[in-house]
Structures are given as C-alpha cells and as structure tokens.
C-alpha cells in the first residue's frame, strides 16, 4: 500500500480476513558536500545521495539559478536531506531539509519550513520565500545553444539579426513548461518562429515559446495556465537549424534577457510565524556548517 504499510488478506473457511501490517521506516538525516565537475547528477551521486536529491536541488533553487545554463565546473553544494530506510535497507531519498548552493561564486541558501497551519515551503534564512513568479528555464535537462545577443549572425538568413531570447537545444518532443502563471494570448504559427505559444502574465510581462513541434492537448488562446504546466513540445518548425526551444521574456514590449532579468518574488514569511520559523530552522541551517555524518531518527 505504501513503503510503510502492507495489506495482508487471508482466506479460511469463514471467508476472507484482511489487516494492514506496519513496516516501520527509519529516517537518517544526512549532510553531504559536493563539487560539480561535469554534471549536478554525477556530483550528487558521488556524495552517496541519489537522483531525487539532485532533482530537489534544481527545483528548490530553480527560480534563482538556470540549471540548464548557469551551472559551471567548480560550483559546489551542501545539502541536508532525509534518507528513508526499512530494516536497514535503503528505500529512497526523502525531502531536502536545508541546502547551500554556490553558483559562479554566489551562494544561495534554502531551508524547509512547515508553518503551524501545515503549509510547507522553502525559504531563505531571512524568511523570504524562494518562490518566484517565473522559472529561470522553461525546460529541464537540456543545454543552451544560443544566448541573448543583439548582434548575432542569423544561421539561416546569414545576416546580423538580434537574438532576443535564449535557445535551448533539446530532443524533439521534450516538454516545454510555462515559466509563470498567466493566460495564453497566442497559440499558432508565427513566421520564422514556426509554432508559437505566447502567454501574458500581468504587469506587462509576456513570454514566448517558439519552434514547437506541437501544442499540449487542450491548449488554446484564452486558456489559463499555471507555472510549470506543460504547454507544448520542442520541435524545429519555422527557421530552425535543429530541434530547440526559443524562449523570450518581454516587459511592456521590450525584450529582456531571460537569464538575468530580475524576477518578481513571492511575499515573505508572515510576521506571526517569525519566531516559530527561527526556532525550527536554526538547527537545519546549523547543519550546513556542522561536520559530516548521519543522524538516525526512527519513525
């Protein structure tokens, strides 16, 4: 039924009898440190953690760091996370409790906090939410093939033509995510962009996604989308030399560099939770400074 529960059904002369067997889980809290040489996944695996923790890091810091573009050899991380075991055997990595990520010399920190109302989010140590209104990258696990450049030589037209977005090279069919919540204002064919989706997000912000192979089922002009919803799939329609996503971020009609533009943030932690936040997160943040070693917690 779950990692901690098994349904046992027994048949006898009187019929069937069922009961739920409890399989106790153990939680070991680990703190590991790593330095990226070639990829985040390899660096996390080298510490003894698993893919779930690498994915969690990319999601936690994904509003501030473009994990497709920004990660460089020499970047480093410290992460305190839960490891779930049963009868001494590894089951899975649990949630990240606290983490530090140094990207190109700049450190970002996060801590997991559940408020008295039961809501769980990740915050900076000062209580500001890490959640932003937009994702840095609308794709997972690809590479940037062409950056924001107002003086780029167009590979097909063979003339200088401003490149007012970021190109993410990825296999045809790779899901494309809405960078932020908003309303679809265009879904169709638009010149050299081929199949295009445009989303209005309020405050004069519009994001554009081009060269798509197809749109997500049910996507249409006027449809509301949430941040992270799959809206389309990578292709090479329009003027494209290979499969990739062209992504633009516009403010009041002016193109901004999606990699560096300041993104609107979420409200900070409510004042009434400040003392509780400080008390609960202090030991988690301290773990990022502590010597390495697992802590066993039964549950």
Provide a descriptive summary of the structure in words.
The protein folds into two domains: 26-132 and 268-298, Nuclear Transport Factor 2, Chain: A; 143-256, Glucose Permease (Domain IIA), CATH 2.70.70.10. Helices cover 10% and strands 42% of the residues. The model is unreliable at 142-162 and 295-299 (pLDDT under 50). With 299 residues, the chain is mainly beta. The radius of gyration is 23 Å and the shape is globular. Strands 8, 9, 10, 11, 12, 13, 14, 15, 16 and 17 form a ten-stranded antiparallel sheet that branches. Strands 7-6-5-4-3-18 form a six-stranded antiparallel sheet, sandwiched between helices. The two termini are 17 Å apart.
Distinct helical segment count = 3
Output the helix-strand order.
Answer: EEEHHEEEEEEEEEEEEEEHE
CATH topology of the largest domain: Nuclear Transport Factor 2, Chain: A
Number of domains: 2
Radius of gyration: 23 Å
- Please identify, by name, the CATH architecture of the largest domain: Roll
Overall body shape: globular
* Fraction of helical residues: 10-25%
Quick recap of the structure?
With 299 residues, the protein is mainly β.
How would you summarize the topology of this molecule?
Elements: E1 5-12, E2 15-22, E3 26-35, H1 40-46, H2 51-60, E4 76-86, E5 89-103, E6 106-114, E7 120-123, E8 143-146, E9 166-169, E10 175-177, E11 182-189, E12 195-202, E13 205-215, E14 224-225, E15 230-234, E16 244-251, E17 254-256, H3 274-287, E18 295-298
Antiparallel strand pairs: 1-2, 3-4, 3-18, 4-5, 5-6, 6-7, 8-9, 9-16, 10-15, 11-12, 11-14, 12-13, 13-15, 13-16, 16-17
